């Protein structure tokens, strides 16, 4: 009887291996052979799913962002408006021990996006979705009377995204100056300025 392979599970193992490798060794450590070894799977099986290191890195970022979306979706089912927005921004921006590896992979992905069109296109697509989500939560907060009505929701969504992205990068690069409580306070204080 042929062995049944769970393809999604295999792809997940490869994504997690990429995340660990890039976080530990940078892009220099990202080789096909190293990923297979880190995942505990055969080198040959890797090529059933991915053609190159670029494919692997893109898959790892999609995997990471899908995990993040799942967490945010679960919270958004129970909460709305500014409460859901604060959770989204904190989940996206805050760098702590648990999120450090994902943040390092995102930073490596940004480097590639600055150089290669395929990465830039993927980045634009991811950010477009994120901006849409932030704007929708701002509109929801406006409908609930939580925020001032004298701002442009799309422009404010862009400002919030850029602000929170910067906080995340500083939390990654300067963890002593920007520990998670400081990162969170910066986000909540910005949101407080939008409240009525």
Please report which band the strand proportion falls in: under 5%, 5-15%, 15-25%, 25-35%, 35-45% or over 45%: under 5%
Identify the quaternary structure here: single chain
Sequence stretches where pLDDT stays below 50 over 5 or more residues: none
**Nearest-integer average pLDDT:** 93
Keywords:
196 residues; 9 helices; mainly alpha; single chain
Task: Describe, in plain words, how this protein is organized in 3D.
There is one protein chain. By secondary structure, the chain is mainly α. Helix content is 74%, strand content 0%. It has nine helices and no strands. The chain has helices spanning 7-25, 32-39, 43-46, 53-78, 81-93, 100-113, 117-143, 153-173, 180-192. Helix 1 packs across helix 2 and helix 1 crosses helix 4 (53-78). The longest helix is centred in the middle third of the chain and has 27 residues, at 117-143. It is elongated, with a radius of gyration of 19 Å. The chain starts with 6 loop residues before the first helix and ends with a helix. The model has no long low-confidence stretch (mean pLDDT 93).
